[in-house]
Amino acid sequence: MSKRILHVVTNTAHYSDPAHPTGLWLSELTHAWDVFAEKRYEQHLVSPKGGVSPLEPRALKWPLLDSSARAWLGDPDRMALLSSTARPDDIVATRVDAIYFTGGHGVMWDFPESDGLQALVRSVWEQGGIVSSVCHGYCGLLNTRLSDGTLLVAGKPITGFSWTEEVLAGVAKAMPYNAEAEMKARGAIYRKALLPFLPYVVTAGRLVTGQNPFSARAAAIKVAALLSAQSERCD
Fold it and tell me: Which of 1, 28, 58, 186 could pair with 216 in a Cys bridge, judged by C-beta atoms 3.0 to 4.6 Å apart?
C-alpha cells in the first residue's frame, strides 16, 4: 500500500502588522512534495482552519524561486490544492503515515495554538508514524503533548529556523517570539548548522526536522527512508 503524507501549511497572510505580508514558503512544500511524488506516496494538505494557504511573497523572488516552486506555480491543479486545504478534523489520523510541517513566518501565528493540529500529531506519533518539519514548521510542535501529558519535543534533538537566521533575514524585530528559545524552554535539544542558511537535518527516531528552506529536500529524503525501513520491517 502507498504511504500517506500529510503536509501542514499556514492560513496566516500577514505579520502582526497587516502591511507586512507572509504565508507559506512555497519551496519548503514543493521540495518535499517532489521527493514523496518520486516514491508515489499519497499526499494531502491540511491547515489550521482549512481553505486558502497564502504564499510568502519573498519566497517567490529570484533566486529563492527555484525550478521546483516555479513548476508548482505553473500548475493550476497544484495551485488549486492551496486554495482548498483540509481542516484537521477532516483528516483520519489512522490513515496518515507521516506528517510534515512546512514553514514560512505565517506558521508562527497559527500553528502553535491549533488544538486540531496537536491532536493529529499526537495520534500520528502514538500510532508509530513519522513527525517532521522544516524551518518555522517546528513551531507546530511547540505545544504538542502526548497522551501521558509530556511534551513531544522534550528531551529530543531538534532543529528549525534559528534566531541568528531571523536576525540575518532582517525580520527578528517583527517576530511574535523567538522560536529557537521557545523550543529550548520546552526541553528540546536544539541544534543548528555551524553556518546559517546551510542545509541541516536532525533525525531523532521518528522525529525529523530541517533547519531552513534549504533543508526541505534533505528532510523529506530522511522521512522517505524511515518509511521505507518501516515497510521492510512489515514485509
Answer: 28
Are 142 and 186 contacting, i.e. CB atoms less than 8 angstroms apart? yes
Domain residue extents for the chain: 4-234
HSE-up (13 A, CA, CB side) for residue 206: 18
Helices (H), the chain: 26-38, 67-73, 76-81, 107-110, 115-126, 163-169, 179-185, 216-234
Q: Using H for helix, E for strand and C for coil, what is the string for 88-128? A: HHHCCHHHCCEEEECCCCCHHHHCCCCHHHHHHHHHHHHCC
User: What's the grid cell of residue 98?
Assistant: 507521516
Tell me which residue of 85, 115, 119 sits closest to 7, measured CA to CA.
85
CA distance 169 to 59: 12
Q: 111-125 burial, b if ≥16 CB within 10 A, otherwise e?
A: bbebebbbebbbbbb
For the segment 57-96, what is each residue's pLDDT rounded down to a tens digit? 999 997 889 999 999 999 999 999 999 999 999 999 999 9
Query: Per the confidence metrics, is the pTM higher than 0.90?
Result: yes
Question: What is residue 28's three-state secondary structure?
Answer: helix
In Å, how far are 4, 83, 161, 185, 220 from 155, measured between CA atoms? 28, 37, 19, 11, 23
H/E segment holding residue 207: strand 207-210
Block residue for cell numbers 482548498 = 84
First to last CA, the chain: 12
Give the position of cell 536544539: 190
CATH topology of domain 4-234: Rossmann fold (3.40.50)
